[in-house]
Amino acid sequence: MILRSPASLAHPVLSPRAVMVVKLLALAWAVTGQITVYPQVRVPPLALLAAFEGSPAWPVALTFLGVLGVLGVWLTGLVRTGAMVLAASIGLGMAGDLAWFSNNRAFTAVVLALLGLAQTPAQERWVPWQCGVVFLGAAFDKTLSPDWRSGRFLATFVDGLADYGLLWSPGGYTGGRHCLAELAAAWGTPWLFAAASWLVILGEWAIGVGFLLRHRAVVTANAAFFVGLVLLTGSPMGMFAFAGTIVSLLLIDGLGEGRRLGDHVGYWAAVVVLLGSPLFSQALVVLVAVAVAATYDRAFRT
User: Which of 47, 58, 153, 265 sees the fewest Cβ atoms within 10 Å?
Assistant: First the structure.
């Protein structure tokens, strides 16, 4: 049968933890509202799409593709196909409107595509390797930046947050008072911002190396990184915090295998919290739930 229970993590090619990651990414894309904001074609970087410029049918078609991909992942055994369809909808959206391009959407699409293309569980390693490259690239760029090394960038960023308020979150909430940024702007010192900057830089180096080595400790370190990001900015940065945290589940050996409740704690904790927080004005509870569930999932196994 093509139809499958949403609770099923069985797949003839992918491991249960990879199916879990694909399902959680698809769910996050849907409930954060990303699936409803596909753009029209505007000055497309690909000349092939120029014929669709300004067409109201384009975002409708991409939304249909996105919904098809999410339903394929959750309600059928065609998990890899659904992942590829959802990744294609995101990729076509970015190809049709350069202004809609963002690193967090590209990251999500690449992860979905890599898992959709995986032919064996061994090829699922492409995703942690890709995450490692992303973190190492970001760490390398910050290390070369005098503004990051001195803390000037972070100080300026915090001052801007204190004036503007919370950044945009998927629920559309933005501009609310950001008390943490106001405190940091009022009491922060140059050495404190410099220390915080180096904490970010060294953290990205460590997480990047950890992903390349597939070390389990990265699950907690990675979650802590994104918790800090959400606390500082008041935003999950689109899909980045969700996707960046969810993919770390691939590093938990045995996650989702078996029939005992503890085998699925991480999965269902993430599902419940994602569904229970549709506005996502603050994503901290999601990150903590996924991180804790992922880190301690095997503790429930007997």
Answer: 47
Distance CA 132, CA 265 (A): 26
| Per-residue CA distances from 252 to 4, 17, 217, 300 (Å) | 24, 8, 10, 13
CB neighbours of residue 1 within 10 Å: 5
Distances (CA, A) of 54 to 40, 50, 91, 94: 6, 9, 18, 15
Q: Cα–Cα distances in Å, from 202 out to 48, 139, 295?
A: 43, 7, 22
Pair of tokens at residue 37: 């904001």
Would you call 53 helix, strand, or coil by DSSP?
strand
**CA angle, 287 as apex, 270 and 143 as ends, to 5°?**
140
Per-residue pLDDT of the chain (302 residues; tens, 9 = 90+): 578 888 788 889 998 889 989 998 998 898 878 898 899 988 777 777 888 888 899 999 999 999 999 999 999 989 999 999 999 999 999 998 888 988 989 999 999 999 999 988 889 999 999 999 999 999 999 999 999 999 999 899 888 887 877 665 554 556 666 677 777 778 888 898 999 999 999 999 999 999 999 888 888 888 888 878 877 777 777 788 888 888 888 887 776 665 444 456 566 666 655 655 444 444 545 555 555 555 555 444 44
